[in-house]
Amino acid sequence: MNNRFYLVLPLLLASAFSFAQIEFGLKAGLSTESLQGESFSIDRAGRQDLRVALEDANYGFQFGALLRLPLSPNLTLQPEVTFNSAKNNYRLDDDDTGVSTAFEERYNDVNVPVLLSYKLAFLQLNAGPVGHFFLSSTDDLNNQDGLERTFDTFNLGYALGAGIDIGPLTFDVRYDGNFARYGETFTFQGEEYNWDQAPKRWIGSVAYRF
Fold this sequence. Notes:
Layout (H helix, E strand, L loop, with lengths): L1 H20 L1 E11 L5 E6 L2 E11 L2 E11 L4 E20 L4 E22 L2 E17 L7 E4 L3 E13 L2 E10 L6 E4 L2 E4 L6 E9 L1
Antiparallel strand pairs: 1-4, 1-13, 2-3, 3-5, 4-5, 5-6, 6-7, 7-9, 8-11, 9-10, 10-13, 11-12
């Protein structure tokens, strides 16, 4: 019995030590959209005469929680769950009619990144996949007869970033992208058109680790 206890004791101590190194944190931050170019076209029956221009990428906010699971002295697994809310201003130009329509779009989603973090000197370098779960949206297009935007309920993306630990605080800057379009289609007068860019955003946040 004593021999078995001495064999199991190191495993129990190692498990307790690993669990003691697990950190839980609460985080909050700001984000802004980053699109490739200030304007893009919606393909309408082979023509590019319906254009959308991003006039102002307003800052959104996010808050959530994170876990830090140590894998080695310099390597950490960091899953997170964050709620995000953002607002952008656009302009819709129809060359056929010469009419320009300004509209505001607000949307909410939940992000679930699973990041691998590598400690390099004082920096924490982060990278990993991100699941984007769409919750809701409102926009001024719904006030215009025949215009509507459709969002996908889920999209897989990625995150790249770096952070600095100062005591129990972590300051983080991150680039969050998508592998596919998040808002898949525009509906204009009963017809669907392709949305030809995947949204990307810069996120700056601060977390308090327990």
